[in-house]
Amino acid sequence: MGYVLITGASEGIGKAIARRAAKDGRDLILSARSEDKLEALAAELRSSGRTVHVIVADLNTSDGAAQLWAEAVQIGQIDVLVNNAGLGINGPFVKTDTTREDTSVQVNIVALTQLMKSAAQHMHANGAGKILNVASTAAFMPGPHMAVYHASKSYVLSLSEAVAQELAGGDFTVTALCPGATKTEFFKDADMHDVRLLKLGLMMSAEDVADAGWSGMMRGKRVVVPGLANKVFAVLPRFVPRGLLTWVVAQFYVRS
């Protein structure tokens, strides 16, 4: 059995997936920018008898994904890739920081695609494998005040479903995990501490999201939306006029 490679593994959903994978007896390669956090998690998981490697990588560089993959396959065969690294920024498109949005596109789209391509080729050659791409319920609708983030997650969902269909019928699966608001550092990093969405009290724990994503991936599901409220949010856009939908979403992201 090969390794589980997880990006954005230092905190939040990535960290929770690492713990879930270790609980299932899997050996891991953990990657993120924070070496201290990665090493602390690695030490915790090694204490349970797992083999854990740490690769510090910055996916916001043109060769970050390629370097990460090259280092990972030097360690061993990759059976599972968890594309979890991602970020966003809250605010009107005409005012938000361009550098932050460029970083979002690089990490959420470009690096994810590069890693997914490398993993797909690697796993196809080995005859089997699983890819879990962390998208969001944001993927199902436009997001005023989070426009680039929503668009990037729509890309992740579309790419995941398309490649899953291309590879249907074999032992290689692609799963898109689409959580809603989750108790992580994402909202702080995205400058969302006072948006209305956070006052609804609907946030799931990272552990519950990770459990749903991991188990869904292991069953070969193409799309996993954890939680009843999130399932409703994912389905509603099919029935609501687009103009009304974008107005409603905007209200969630307005500061109050």
UniProtKB/TrEMBL annotation:
Q: State any GO CC term.
A: membrane
Q: Which residues form the Ketoreductase domain?
A: 2-182
Asked whether the keyword Transferase is assigned, the reply is: no
Question: Which Pfam family name is an example for this entry?
Answer: adh_short
Q: Which terms in the Gene Ontology molecular function aspect does this entry carry?
A: oxidoreductase activity
Ordered alphabetically, the record's keywords are: Oxidoreductase
Q: Which InterPro entries match?
A: KR_dom, NAD(P)-bd_dom_sf, SDR_fam
Q: Which SUPFAM superfamilies does the entry mention?
A: NAD(P)-binding Rossmann-fold domains
Chain coiled-coil ranges: none
Similarity comment text for this entry? Belongs to the short-chain dehydrogenases/reductases (SDR) family.
Listed name of the protein: Ketoreductase domain-containing protein
Origin organism of this chain?
Litoreibacter albidus
